[in-house]
Specification:
The chain has 298 residues and is of the alpha/beta class. Bound molecules: phosphoenolpyruvate and magnesium ion. This is Phosphoenolpyruvate-protein phosphotransferase.
Length: 298
């Protein structure tokens, strides 16, 4: 089966409307790169950086992070690499970060919320990403944004880090695209407003589904209610993609739904711009794309 799928590896796809649709992959460390490269990935649609911070006793230094991000950027050459800033909290705990015990961690001090509190941790990561951007096509992405203020604050901090690096004469990417995850329903509902402030969206269906349906993504007792095809979820996905296109930006998806071959046809009809998939799903998704009536092979 794997062999039969190989023929899809070099294929690139466009919607009949003219938009390109790319198939990229998700990584949690540099060890995940190889599998994606073997399948001809068009980029990294999500680099989950929290794994660099987990399973250790102290925070990775700016230098350590820089080397890792640079390695990914250089390996991918001119292909886009979307680095997501730290999304810790929820189910992911870091002992050295002094995180409170919370009754509802998925609704608590997670991701950007925690980064704003631990501002030096955040700035260290932003500096490392900006510096690595000099060596490849790095994009930055902020997770778990619900309110406009959070996005504007994150962008301001990024600008501050940029200026400090420039003042210090340290090489950096000065025009690194900035995107946000759409994974909180309020952000999806207000996607028109957010689209004016970012270069791209990436829909995080794992959280978007959990928050839209009020179904814990980790709880087996309610897993029957965790439904990517709930009309409420599909409505948010469609309106987010539409809002992005109307504002002239692109919209990808990096949640599990992007890897689900049952969903490909639906998402292609909505003209999703990028499928960022897990592990070995690239060729499977490319196969599905090749069957779509509104898609042509480049
Ligand atoms: C998501 O929520 O869909 C997502 C991609 O992020 P994570 O699974 O890391 O929360
Ligand atoms: Mg998420």
């Amino acid at each position: 089966e794997v062999k039969a799928l190989k023929k899809y590896k070099p294929l690139r796809f466009n919607y009949t409307s003219g938009r390109h649709v790319s198939v990229a992959g998700n990584i949690g460390s540099i060890d995940d790169l190889e599998l994606l490269l073997e399948q001809g990935t068009e980029g990294i649609g999500l680099f989950r950086t929290e794994f660099l911070f987990m399973g250790r006793t102290e925070m990775p230094s700016e230098e350590e992070q820089f080397e890792i991000y640079k390695h990914v950027a250089e390996t991918m050459k001119d292909k886009p690499v979307i680095i997501r800033t730290l999304d810790i909290g929820g189910d992911k705990i870091i002992p050295y970060m002094n995180m409170p015990d919370e009754e509802n961690p998925f609704m608590g001090l997670r991701a950007l919320r925690l980064c704003f509190k631990e501002i030096e941790v955040f700035k260290t990561q932003l500096r490392a990403i900006l510096r690595a951007g000099y060596y490849g096509n790095i994009h930055i992405m902020f997770p778990m944004i619900g309110a406009m203020d959070e996005l504007l604050k994150a962008k301001t901090i990024l600008e501050t880090c940029k200026h400090t690096l420039l003042e210090q004469g340290i090489p950096l990417s000065n025009h690194l695209p900035v995107g946000m995850m759409i994974e909180i329903p309020a952000a999806a509902i207000c996607a028109r407003d957010f689209a004016k402030e970012v270069d791209f969206f990436s829909i995080g269906t794992n959280d978007l589904i959990q928050y839209t349906l009020a179904v814990d993504r980790m709880n087996v007792d309610v897993s029957g209610l965790y439904n990517p095809y709930h009309p409420g979820v599909l409505h948010l996905i469609q309106s987010t993609i539409q809002a992005a296109h109307e504002a002239g930006i692109w919209c990808g998806m990096c949640g599990e739904m992007a890897s689900d071959i049952e969903a490909t046809s639906l998402l292609a009809k909505m003209e999703l711009d990028e499928f960022s998939v897990t592990g070995n799903a690239i060729l499977k998704i490319k196969e599905q794309l090749s069957y779509q009536t509104n898609i042509t092979v480049e």
